[in-house]
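Below: protein 1.
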Amino acid sequence: MADESTASASSRLVVLAGPTAVGKGTVAAVIRDDHPEVWISVSVTTRAARPGEVDGVHYHFVSDEEFDAMIAHDELLEWAVVHKAARYGTPRRPVEQALAAGRPALLEIDLQGARQVKVNMPEALFVFLTPPSWDELVRRLVGRGTEDERERERRLETARVELAAESEFDITIVNREVHAAATELVALMKAPLRA
């Protein structure tokens, strides 16, 4: 346990959460491309892949049975049902290995998952990504064209609840422009750890 208290800034775990369509995945993709020193967790999900998504890069796409087995074997740091539909989770072992190797680590997850990580790893830095406005969030969700009208309405209902949780986080980043948000997040990841 002494190693945790003397961990270098490079082994900081940062949890990024925020409402649907705020751009969490896009910010994480910019960091993946521009900052190879940052380890980014790849979540597991029971939902189907969207066009252009690659298994093992964007998500690990698994069956309900595979997800159940991961829960049963305590292989997930957190998991949740998202948008009243698919399940998502963070594999525990890769997170622990990245931190043990001294790498800055990023979890890009939903609000429910962030709350579970806060219980399991309260020493992490919790960052809330928010849109510049509600209208911009709606524009982004509609503009990406990946959900039908019913799914958009369900996600917007979820987003209203998620936005109300901002005060639960250590820091808020407003995603006005994705590269600026990514730069701000990486700077937080590399900042000296608080005592």
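Below: protein 2.
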Amino acid sequence: MSDTRLNNVIRAFENGKTAFAAFSKLDKQTAIEMSDAPYDGLIFEMEHNPYDVTAFGDALQYMLNRKEIATSGSLAPKVTPIARIPANGVEMNQTFAKQVLDRGAYGVIWPHVATVEQAYNAVASCRYARPKNAPLYEPKGARGDGPANAARYWGLSMAEYYEKADVWPLAPQGEILVGLMCESVQAIENLDDILSNVPGIGLILIGEGDLSQELGFPRQYEHPEVLDAMRKIVETCHKHNVVVGNPHVTAKNHRRLISEGYRFLMSAPQRTYGVVGMARELAGY
């Protein structure tokens, strides 16, 4: 079992497919309900909702389904849990990433990342330290060592966890997805430099809400200026072969998003399964 890919979002990306996800409230009942949802991943929202790492740990446990584990032959949850943390790029706060990873998260979404330095910190915060002569040394790991809970949640020994607890795609065997939110004009201007100079970024997620605010068209996601800004993000990500995602997938825009090359689609609200079904059918699976 330890050789099986544990992160379903990464599995979709490696297979050239689109990954589907949703934001989720941080409570046990939602975790239970979402444990068999038709998503590859579930992002627990702790940027705009309260940050409660104890509740997060409980939610992860409620996502485990013993029957599903026995049937699938994989120790991983059917829906991969990821956390959006409150710390943004400017704050450089590594503690939030460390705490959710130590509880067993398979990825971290970092809001408001706009510079190379901020992007470097985000990736480094999700990696353990290693000797300078070790392969894949950069970005230099800054995650503190406390793997016991995460290893148990992943169903691995500590040695196995250390092997897999690195960032993908920098480390091919890595199971941790680092997603950076691009949600400002500054971020768009610096995105090419970010993707050129910071390895280990698995996903760029467009923050349409904040971006549209800064452009002067709050939540007008179909406004030409907002669409043009998003197009620039998509083009830059495609240039660097980095997955780009959209957090506001609806019945009206899912065809356009897939045709434009988005490969991480988040439906809102969290239980709009019909939209996911339509998008999967359109994508051919």
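The CA atoms of residues 254 and 279 lie 6 Å apart.
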